[in-house]
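ok new one. same drill as before - structure tokens go in, u give me an amino acid for every spot. 404 of them this time. try not to just spam alanines like last time pls lmao
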């Protein structure tokens, strides 16, 4: 990691998407990095209570601070058999409804307590919710700039690698299409051959019955005629289908010959340059995402007092966000500027009292108007019924008043 202080160590808690030996090798090689992740493909084992090395209980608030749910965990902490450099923490978790699951966690940090590792990864859902919130309200996934950089200018700055040539890729795709067509034809032929074989058995049995019968049975003769006709149709359809299968086999063989005439691997960077390809310029996106995350952090910091006072986790974010989006009327004074917030939603009397309390706490911080005058900023929750609009004759004369 560039420009990362040597004394600081970053622990990354991620899902199974990064699972792989090359990732683990990079983590082992970087002293400033630790990894905690789920073990991919773990199969639950028979749980031996006598082998349990530790237990813990995690409490999560559901809809309010006092609405707690308890989750119980038992775990084993050992070296991972596939890579002894990593710890394998096998966890058996029980939720409040009594449902039990067994999972395995991988971590490279030997000093961190197993209970802390478990807490970190079982709280990953908070990260997922935050990603969704950043996307929905702050546009973290939005395109910031259309500026691009030609790959020709990036030569020597990006890592190059060999890739399959475009000719080989085109021939490979053509081969896939031919094999797909041939597979369908072969399946249809196999099904028709099996059905005809069954008909032939039935036809033989019916002909034997007819041969030993003293009188000709019209029903039996009709069934024999139908089976014979079906066999004729099979012979009629099978011949062109076999020809189509043969044609595709020949075409695949020709593709192999053509593919051998083209270069297998080419430089990816040279290919992109030759095609005049460009890459999105990342600086603008990086700057805007930094601002978005900063604003998100400020919003969560401002939300905390309201969250604590309101104590309803189902819609506290929404109500507080509506408050931050409120229009305002400024009452300018020599020593103080009062901001009368005009809510966009109808708050209940209880919510109005909570918001007034939160705004009082904000006002206690003695915020100043950033215009150099040193005037204090004071916020209050207003009501639309308080707003009076007076229009005086004359060009551009528009005055908004807030009754005392």
């Amino acid at each position: 990691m560039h420009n990362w202080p040597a004394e600081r160590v970053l622990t990354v808690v991620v899902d199974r998407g990064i699972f792989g030996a090359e990732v683990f090798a990079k983590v082992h090689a970087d002293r400033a990095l630790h990894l905690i992740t789920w073990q991919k493909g773990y199969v639950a084992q028979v749980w031996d209570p006598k082998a349990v090395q530790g237990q813990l209980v995690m409490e999560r608030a559901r809809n309010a601070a006092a609405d707690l749910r308890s989750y119980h965990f038992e775990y084993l902490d050992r070296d991972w058999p596939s890579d002894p450099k990593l710890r394998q923490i096998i966890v058996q978790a029980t939720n409040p409804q009594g449902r039990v699951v067994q999972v395995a966690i991988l971590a490279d940090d030997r000093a961190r307590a197993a209970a802390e590792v478990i807490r970190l990864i079982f709280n990953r859902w908070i990260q997922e919710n935050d990603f969704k919130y950043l996307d929905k309200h702050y546009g973290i996934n939005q395109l910031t700039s259309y500026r691009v950089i030609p790959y020709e200018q990036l030569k020597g700055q990006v890592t190059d690698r060999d890739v399959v040539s475009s000719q080989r890729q085109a021939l490979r795709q053509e081969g896939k299409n031919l094999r797909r067509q041939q597979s369908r034809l072969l399946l249809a032929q196999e099904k028709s051959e099996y059905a005809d074989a069954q008909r032939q058995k039935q036809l033989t049995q019916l002909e034997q019955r007819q041969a030993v019968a003293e009188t000709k049975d019209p029903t039996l003769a009709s069934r024999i005629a139908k089976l014979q006709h079906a066999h004729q149709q099979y012979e009629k359809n099978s011949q062109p289908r076999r020809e189509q299968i043969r044609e595709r086999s020949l075409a695949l063989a020709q593709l192999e010959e053509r593919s051998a005439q083209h270069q297998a691997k080419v430089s990816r960077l040279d290919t992109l340059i030759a095609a005049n390809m460009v890459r999105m310029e990342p600086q603008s996106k990086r700057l805007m995402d930094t601002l978005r995350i900063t604003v998100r952090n400020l919003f969560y910091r401002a939300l905390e007092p309201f969250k604590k006072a309101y104590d309803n986790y189902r819609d506290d974010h929404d109500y507080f966000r509506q408050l931050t989006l409120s229009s305002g009327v400024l009452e300018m004074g020599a020593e103080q500027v009062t901001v009368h917030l005009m809510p966009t939603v109808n708050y209940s009397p209880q919510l109005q009292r909570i918001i007034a309390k939160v705004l009082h706490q904000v006002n206690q911080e003695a915020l100043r108007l950033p215009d150099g005058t040193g005037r204090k900023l004071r916020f209050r929750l207003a009501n639309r019924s308080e707003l009076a609009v007076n229009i005086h004759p004359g060009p551009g004369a528009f005055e908004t008043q807030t009754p005392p």
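The longest helix spans residues 166-212. and btw The first strand starts at residue 10 and ends at 13.
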